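Note to self: user wants both folds in one dump. Writing first protein now.
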Amino acid sequence: MVTEENVNKIKLLLALGWANKRIAAALAISEPTLRKHYLSVLKVRALARDALDARRAELLWAQVEKGNVGAMKQFTLLLEANDRMRWANAQRRGDDDDHQEVDDAPAKAKSEPARRTYLGKKDAALIAAEDAIGSDPDLQPSLLN
């Protein structure tokens, strides 16, 4: 009765938010039978959506790497949705999620604990741009003699 196909189907239906009763009906089994044979799958209900989203992002990224422009647009939308979700979660917790953590410890002695410097979005973007310019010889200013 327990098949990998049914396990995958249950994981998908859990990720979609289906109740046990509805899942059992879709598999044409009773709820007690569902719980008996698939209890371990049902226990991870809270993680099912995250697993589905992660797999979806993985498949989408594979298409992005192949140069699929439509996938690039969808991946951008996925990133924006993820950023909105992170921001909303930070607001609920009362966190200030508008900064990035940067480690400036390499200059320090190993015996001292590492200090963290927090940069705002603009500073982090400026550093990233400077790094990109520094690593690409085509973007470096040429010296004219």
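First done. Writing the second protein, which came from a different request thread.
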Amino acid sequence: MRLRSFQLADAYDVSQIWQMTASHEQEKDTLQVLTEQLGYDRDLVIVAEAPDGRVVGAIVGTIDGHTGFFYCLAVHPDYQKRRVGTMLVRELEQRFLQKGVKRIWITVDEGTEKLFPFYQHLGYTNGCSTRLEKELYAVSSYSHGQTG
């Protein structure tokens, strides 16, 4: 599995994954977040590419000060339970660290509550009833050579 920054040619594959994994309303919101983030910092939009070159997962991150936020974590159903989501989150965490981020917030809502146990497994804690967060200094020992 190869992780890399989003390219315009990925738009169709990524939108297909979001169609398979999100509600119609969330999909529209996701496309808006993606468009805005590409204008700010393309390095925080990451895709997972299968050996055959097909994009099978994506995540979108943003930064406000020293706080990172991520949205739109989605993995093609055929690739779920294969650590693709973990790899995407870990890669985004590393990119956040490189940009000086100290904490990450994740908004969990009706459409993403099924991911709550996954985020907890990755070390995120319940900061309030709708947000999980993780101090990044705790993951600074992560090695790019490991799979998430």
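Dump finished. Worth passing along: The chain has a mean pLDDT of 81.
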